UniProtKB/TrEMBL annotation, chain B:
CDD domains: Commd9
Domain COMM positions: 113-187
Record's protein name: COMM domain-containing protein 9
Pfam families attached to this UniProt entry: COMM_domain (PF07258), COMMD9_HN (PF20923)
Xref: InterPro entries: COMM, COMMD9, COMMD9_N
């Protein structure tokens, strides 16, 4: 998992600097889209502390593996601390990291759950309803129709599905969906 | 020209006509009907086709204009038409008019129609990114039938399975609730 040799480089970083680095890391993990921001923060950190960027990036890469492994294995903060110490980090740094892990793990867990595989995820639903006035078979109709457009994510593409429902179908659909909601709620 | 033919086959017509769903839209729908009648009488196909075609036009006219009373239908026949046959035909039409209307409505052009739906609720317990969780999720299967008019006698039904998270379902129910409210508002006007 972690490269011992690279983690041992962290001795080059003081406890205080390590804390700053840890904070930056967790801020990035909880906002994974802010890649640019994270990289510029790293560069600033390297310049300010007179550490070359190369080794710093190696350290960061190694440390980044820890939270994802901890999520996969459902580790407690105590176990994270123990892991870090086993890998050669000082007690102080390990404790600080474990504390930050404790604070941030709910957010990180929620993000990981959000990335879990979903089949044909329903993204959006648009609807309209109206009255059929007439047709080629019947001069005057006056029946109500309901049209739904479902936006479904198939793989990486969005697919639009158009469906038409009669009124009785709509009411039974609504009834079934309310049953689903009750079922989902009883499991939360 | 149709009268002699109609007189002879009127019994067959009364029995078979309503069941043959006399609202086929295209000429090719009439042929199977003709073939259904043919075995019972030794007629040349052309006059028979004319007979069936005439009956078909009559029923389409009645359904299109929603003629619901005997007087309206009787007035369609020419003056010297055979009295008993006229009454018999009118009676048959009146008996079947509402089911023909319903069928016309059911088979009109439309977007793909929902024909069935099934659902199940799963609990996700683990994944490649997180080893322990308990996240309920819903799988919804919609059976959708393409436009009946395009498919003829063998409609294409496709199944779409969609996954919904609890949040998505809540949003969807909100939308469906709004539809229901608007429908009641329209119905109450």
């Amino acid at each position: 998992m972690c490269d011992d040799a690279q983690l041992r480089d962290t001795v080059l970083v003081s406890s205080q600097q390590f804390s700053v680095l840890t904070d930056m890391l967790f801020r990035f993990l909880t906002e994974p889209k802010e890649v640019e921001r994270f990289l510029s923060q790293l560069t600033d950190f390297a310049t300010m502390n007179k550490i070359s960027l190369g080794p710093l990036k190696n350290i960061v890469n190694s440390i980044l593996l820890v939270p994802s492994g901890a999520l996969k294995r459902n580790l407690s903060s105590e176990q994270v601390r123990a892991d870090f110490i086993a890998l050669g980090l000082s007690e102080e740094k390990a404790v600080y990291f474990a504390q930050q892990w404790n604070v941030n793990s709910p957010t990180l867990t929620r993000l990981a759950v959000g990335h879990t595989l979903m089949i044909n995820q329903l993204i959006d639903m648009e609807w309209k309803f109206g009255v059929t006035a007439g047709s080629s078979e019947l001069k005057k109709v006056g029946s109500i129709f309901l049209q739904l457009k479902l936006v479904v994510k198939k793989g990486s593409q969005m697919e639009n599905v158009h469906i038409e429902l009669t009124l009785p179908q709509f009411y039974s659909f609504l009834h079934e969906m309310e049953r689903v909601k009750t079922s989902l709620e009883s499991f939360s | 020209a149709l009268n002699p033919l109609i007189q002879i086959v009127k019994k067959d017509v009364k029995r078979d006509w309503p069941q043959n769903q006399a609202l086929g839209n295209t000429a090719c729908d009439l042929l199977p009907m003709c073939n259904a009648f043919q075995p019972s009488r030794a007629f040349s196909p052309l006059p028979f086709l004319q007979l069936v075609s005439a009956l078909h036009n009559l029923t389409r006219h009645v359904v299109y204009h929603s003629l619901m009373t005997a007087e309206e239908i009787l007035s369609l026949f020419p003056e010297n038409f055979h009295q008993n046959l006229k009454n018999l035909l009118t009676k048959i039409i009146l008996e079947n008019i509402s089911s023909w209307r319903n069928e016309a409505q059911a088979s009109q052009i439309s977007l793909p129609r929902l024909v069935d739906m099934d659902w199940r609720v799963d609990i996700k317990t683990s994944s490649d990114s997180i080893s322990r969780m308990a996240v309920p999720t819903c799988l919804l299967q919609l059976k959708i039938q393409e436009d009946v008019a395009l498919c003829g006698s063998s409609p294409v039904v496709s199944a779409l399975t969609v996954e919904l998270s609890k949040e998505t379902l809540d949003t969807m129910l909100e939308g469906l609730g709004r539809i229901r409210d608007q429908l009641s508002a329209v119905a109450n006007k």
